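Ops channel
N.P.: pipeline sanity check, posting one input/output pair.
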């Protein structure tokens, strides 16, 4: 197993300049707008992410405990992995 290096941000990992690095893990600890494209079409990025050492799960849940406008709460719910899974299974039924 390769030694683990500093994690790299999703936006860096999928940029055209990035080279896969088996010693680096990809993280999503950056502004939500930088990885919304991943939530919309995850299949597009799976091969690119798999070429790295690992992936730290994305989570839009940061706003759960804060008092933000209703629209932000709705967006947080929509982008939660569980709700995406439920929506897909509901569409298939």
């Amino acid at each position: 197993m390769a030694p683990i290096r500093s994690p790299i941000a999703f936006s860096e990992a999928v940029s055209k300049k990035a080279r896969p690095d088996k010693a680096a893990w990809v993280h999503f600890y950056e502004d939500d707008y930088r990885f919304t494209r991943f939530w919309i079409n995850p299949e597009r990025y799976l091969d690119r992410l798999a070429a790295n050492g690992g992936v730290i799960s994305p989570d839009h849940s940061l706003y759960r405990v804060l008092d933000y406008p209703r629209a932000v709460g709705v967006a947080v719910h929509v982008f939660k992995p569980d709700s995406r899974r439920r929506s897909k299974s509901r569409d298939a039924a």
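N.P.: looks fine end to end. The radius of gyration is 15 Å.
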